[in-house]
Each structure stands twice: as C-alpha cells, then as structure tokens.
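Before relying on records like the one below, remember that each one covers exactly one chain. Contacts with other chains, cofactors or solvent are not represented anywhere in the record.
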Amino acid sequence: MQSYIGLFYHALLHRNIMTLRQVLIQRLIVSQVLQNLLENAVPYLKYKYRKYTAVRKKKHESGSSTGKIRLASRVEKEYLKPVYSASIGEEIEDGLFDDFLELTLQFGMIMMFASAFPLAFSFAALNNIMEIRADALKLLVMFRRPVPRPAATIGAWLNIFQFLIVMSICTNCGLLICLYDLEGKWRIEPGLAAILIIEHILLLIKFGFSRFVPEEPAWVKQNRVKNAAQAQEMCSKQLLRSIFGRKLE
C-alpha cells in the first residue's frame, strides 16, 4: 500500500489522469532505472572494498610494500562477495523476495492503471529485458553464489498476482467511471451501466479461466511423471550395481 497509495490518491480522489500518468512514468522509468543501478552498483562497490582490504591485509602480513599481491584462489574471491539475501531480514532464505516484490509492484502498476497510461507495458517490457541480463550479471559476478533449493511453485506470490488481476479489473473500471462521470452525480446512465456490466463480465471470465483451465497441462504432467519414473529407475539400477559390485569384490 505504501507503493500504491499515491496512485490511488490521484486516480480516485482527485481524478487527475495527467498527474497519475506522470507519477506512473516516474515510478516505472526513473525509479526502475535508479533501482537497477543501485542493485548492481552497491554489491560491486562492496566487493571491491572487501577485496581492497583483504589485499591490504595480506601486504601488511607479508611486509612487502612494493610487490603486487593478488587473491590466490577463486574460493577466496567468492567469500569476499556479498551474500544474496533479502533486504527485510535474515529469516528470508535468499534475495528472491526482493526480486519477486519488484516484479509484483511493477505488475500492479501496469495492470491496475492501464486505462490511464496504456503504454506502460512497453516501458516495463524493455526494463524486464534489461533486468534479465542485469540479474544474471548480479548472480554470476557480483554476489556470492546462492545455495540452490527446489521449489514446485512460486508459493504465495501466485495468490498475490491473482489478487492483483482482480483488483486491476475493478480499478480500471473505476477509472473509466470517473472519466465518464466527471460531475460525480453517479446516475445509472447507459455508459455507466455498460462499464459496470463489462466489469462483471471480465470478472466472470477471469474466474471461469481459473476454474476450468488447469494450472498444469496434461502433457506437461505426463512428461514430468515419466521423467520422475525414469530417474527413479536409473537410481535403482545404480544402487543394485553398487550392491552387487561390492559382493563380488
């Protein structure tokens, strides 16, 4: 709500679409660019500072002031890199929380205020294409390698995205009503009634897709079960070979 309260203020209370559009441009372009720069610059500066202090400490221990000293191993360099962790606390396992939060806020701004600034998706798409490479560089070069952990789904983030989709239908129809009824008389006229009917139809379509379209297609589920069975069979064969091999020895 801290991220969206200003947008709702300009959208619903003041009904100033131009100001709302300017705020969206500021949030989606200026803030995103600055945030991407900070995400990559701060870990890089931390790593450089730690590397400089480590090399200086080695020089002090060796007593050589003229010789050039470098870090010996890749493990030593990896240890000096900052940990890929969340910004809200150590109880979160890794920095995926911040990445998902950034995508969620961007998705909400694009979807909930699409009628005020339809071209917002193009800026978001360009930013996401750049962020794919920036995150790859961040994980491979600037941060310490995170410990891999399996996950079947994206967890609670899926429910958050579903909620934002429902909210986007309501907020866009609310923006259209505010644009249609500038005087604020709220009379049920043909245009206002059409907007309300469209809102109910879109909500029905959304919940219909959620109800009848499976989250996992049948062919994907079949291939997943097949691959799991093949992997289990190979593990069983390797286990039997190791057992019989020990007996023969």
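The helical segments are 5-13, 17-62, 74-80, 96-112, 120-142, 156-180, 190-212, 218-248.
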